[in-house]
Every structure is written in structure tokens, then in C-alpha cells.
Amino acid sequence: MPSPTAPHAIDVRYVADLARLELTAEETAKYQAQLGVILHHVEQLLEADVAGVEPTAHATRLVNVLREDKVQPERCLDRAAVLANAPAVLDDQFIKVPAVIEGEDG
Amino acid sequence: MPDLTQLSFAQAAAALAAGTASSRSLADALFARIDAVEPRVKAYLSLDRTAVLADSEAADARRAAGQARGPYDGVPLAIKDNLNVTGQPCTCASKILAGYTAGYDATVIAKLRAAGVIPCGRTNLDEFAMGSSTENSGYGPTANPWDLERVPGGSSGGSAAAVAAGEAFAALGSDTGGSIRQPASFCGVVGLKPTYGLVSRYGLVAFASSLDQIGPITRTVEDAAILLDLIAGPDPQDSTTLPEQAGGCAAALADAAASVRGLRIGLPREYFETEGLDPEVRRAVEAAGKELEKLGATLVPVSVPTQKYGVGTYYIIATAEASANLARFDGIRYGFRDAAAQDLMQTYRLSRAHGFGPEVKRRILLGTYVLSSGYYDAYYLRAQKVRTLIRNDFTRVFGECDLILAPTAPTPAFKRGEKAADPLAMYLADIYTITVNLAGICAISLPCGFSAGGLPIGMQLMGPALGEKRLLQAAQAYEQTANLANRIAPLGV
Known about the structure:
Helix content of chain B: 40-55%
Distance between the termini of chain B: 17 Å
Shape of chain A: flat
CATH class of the largest domain in chain B: Alpha Beta
Strand content of chain A: under 5%
Distance between the termini of chain A: 41 Å
Helix content of chain A: 25-40%
Structural class of chain A: mainly alpha
Oligomer: heterodimer
Order of helices and strands of chain B: HHEHEHEHEHEEHHHEHHEHHHHEHHEEH
CATH architecture of the largest domain in chain B: Alpha-Beta Complex
Number of domains of chain B: 2
Largest sheet of chain A: 2 strands, antiparallel
Shape of chain B: globular
Number of helices of chain B: 18
Strand content of chain B: 5-15%
Radius of gyration of chain A: 23 Å
Largest sheet of chain B: 11 strands, mixed
């Protein structure tokens, strides 16, 4: 747990790795400073008395809306339309991606 | 021939019914206005005129054959560019979605099409709806039609500007923390944020799923009610939609004047005592309260002590949800893939680095941080608990009053570039709108005057969940005394 008085010691480089975001040195420095200011403002929430308070994840009263587990073809997207948006396509039926397992060809 | 672009959405429909305008003539009139003012306003990211003309001619043919899909068949509507419309771009004003073509209709679009409403142009926004000025668009900013040096607000700035400039009869926007209401306020138009779950989010590109709602931006309260009736209702494609059936809001306006008599309108102390509240805005909103009092409402002082936690809570919850929602933009299945990447990890890292703009990156970083191991309890969980406190505050206050009156934004439209270098100052522009999304309730912004400098000022009415009818009734009763409905920025044309 971070110290409750200074939780804004954000390590932007580490967070950017988690977010799969390449940052330049200039961006890293800029976000380091800006996010520190924003987190300082957010620390205001530490004042709030939340003892015994349940968290709210969603604003509606709904829980677990279920439907029958069956294919609804009319709701499936058209394959050609989907592939048309892909950055690279193989054999008109696959989205071509970089090698996921190392040592294989892309 | 009167200028058809001066018509409200309802008036345009009435002109079609009366035969004084055709759908084609409505479209042509909009195109002429767009040609005249769009180079300065820049409200639209794209507009497929050929498709609009084909749709309008089809609507005219249906009407001529007595087969109109309803009173709004053939009326064009501008659409924020984060809603999927089959065959059209949906860029979210992001470079990462350049070239993307939607393969399906959002539920709201399908509902509008069933009513014959014609999607007409895709409006600019802050990238992925993240911002309060439309300066964060990856394709350049939109100008405020009332003062071209100023921002139209955001994130639905293109929609609000198009409606205010007479480039659209009305538009759809989306509101996660004020993105319909704040630009409506800045542009002198009406913006409605419906109760969470009233309108399906299917086909809206997600920013913060527990906060996002689609809603109308219009020049009259009546138009907002009409459009809400058309787009609301449960949807099997969005499991967060409420079971309540849509409709009846426009019809309820017949009782607008009567509904205000005896209505208790709460004035929340905290909203009027905020540091940074422009005195002109404060005076205009207080004067609107007095007008509502003259109409028979009772003004009640109320207190929302958690208001001060709104921005902090929002920027934890919204960024956390955004960091998860935007993980899908990774250069794999659609959108921009950086060709310089040598392997999978680089494909992710470089595609996102070069596809996203600075504000989106900032929020992804913040959201990733507050969800990361060791910080989750201190930030995200605490924010969710404070969200409960905010909801409880509104529940209590709506026991003391029927509606809440407050400013929509602390100031009129600010100058382009004024807050661009200070993200926190920009976030504080949403101070009055954010808690409505956190609580999941409904709210409307409507014009309540102009500043001495000629800038529109908006007031906000908030209602409890599913309180849209009463909200719209009170808004229309005020609108009819204020004489500020259906104003279009002249733009020297």
C-alpha cells in the first residue's frame, strides 16, 4: 500500500509499460509532472469518510441480465466488412497479425 | 422561400407534413448553410452528401406514396463521430481510427432510421470524447459559432456548434461527464443527458461504460423531448438498459406550464459558492430561478456536500474504465497499425503511441495507474465508495426538492488555447456536470442569457433517475418565458 499522504508518486515509465504505450523522453517528463498535479487534486478524496460505505460500480439497479446462449446470426457482423477494417488480411478470411509466439514467422 | 435552416427539428417535420418543404429541400438548405459557414466553424469531420440526398429523396417518395415512417421521416440529424452508422466513418476524432468504416448501426441510429430520420454528417469531438473544448480532436478544433476565437465546449463540440450555427436542425451527442451539456451551454443550445440506462449505448464507442449516455443537442426543449422519445428504450444489445419503455416526453410538454406550479426547485449552495464561478453566470442562473418562481415553482435551498469530490472521483473512475475500454485499440483487428513495429509488443506500443493523441494517452496512463497493483484500494476502490456518497447525497436532496437548478459550467466559452496546457484547469470546467453521471441521474442544459460580451450562458436542471418528463416540462416552461429558444448564431451570413 502506498502512503495515504503521498500516493501520487507515479512512475510514468512503469505505468506506460503496463498500458502498452511507447513514450518519448519528452512525453514521459510531461506526463510525470501533469499527472502529479492531477493526483494531488484527487487526494481530496482522502478526506471523505468512507468507513462502512459500499462501492458503486454502476448507476443502475440492474444485476445479471441474462439471455439464452444461442447464436443469433442476424446480429453477427458481416465478415467482409470486418476484414475490410483490418490492418492486414490473409486469404480473405484471416486477420494477419505479428508473430505471437517467438521463433515463428509472422 | 424562408430559410429552412432556421427551423427547429419539430418545425422541419411540420414543414414536411404541410408540404411546404421536402426532405430534399431541407438537405439542400443545410448544405448551402454548411458551404457558407463550415469553413469557419469546422463542426463536421465528414458528410456524405450523396448518401443524404439519396435518403432524402427516398423519404420524399415514401411521403408522396402515403408511406411515411412517421412525422420525422426525412428530417436530417447530425451525428457525433463516436456512433457507428453502417458504411460511414467513425473516427472518434482519433488518428487510430482513420479509415475505419462502421459495419453496423448503433441502436440509436437503427431506431432513428426506423423513424425515417436521416443521419446527416459526422460531427467533431475531443478524441474519444475526452475533453471539454473539442481542441483534443485529432483533426483540428471546432470554433464556437458565437465567437470564432472561442471553443464550442466538449466533447460534443461539433454537434453543439453545428446546431448553433444552423448547420443542423439537431444532433446526437454523448455525455460521460458533461459532454452534451457543457458544449450546449457554450453554444447557446439545449443539451439533454438522459438517465443512465434509458438510451442504449450499443454502437457508441465506449469511453467510460458506467457513465456514458447518448442524448440530443437541439435548439428547443421540444426537440430534445422528441429525440429522446425516438432513441430511448430497452435494448437486448445493451444489458445496462433499463426495462422502462420509451416515449411520452414530447406529449408531456402539453402540461409544461401546469407542472411548474408547486414544483420544488433546489438551489444547491455548493454550486453557487464555487471559487471560479463567473459572476455573470451566477447572476443569469439565479435570475432563471426567479423566473421559475414567478411561474409558480418554489425555490428551496439544498446542500450537496459531496459536490467537491466530483472531479476527483470522476477522473479516477472514468480514466480507469477508459484504460480498459481503449485496450482494444492495439493495431491488431482494426484501426492504425504502425508498420515500423518489429514484433507483437512493438505493434501494440507503437500503434498506440502514434495513433492516440496526448489527452487520450494522459487518461490511459492515469487510469492504468489507479487500477495498478498497490494503488487500486487507495484510488479506484475509494472513488467507487465516494461515488456511493455522491449518489446518496442526490437521493437525499431529491427528497427535499423535485429538480435541482445550477449553472452548467462555471464560465461562458473560453478562448481556444486558454486551458490547453493545463489539464487540471480543463477538468474543472466540468465541475457542475460530472456528478450527474456519477449518480446516473438526468440533467438538461438550456440557454438562460448572454454575457455582456455576447456569449451564451447555460443553466442546468437536474432530476432524479427517470425524471425526464418533469425535467423537460420545467425546462420548456422556462424556455417559453426566456425567449431564448431556437437561436442561431448569425456568423455574418
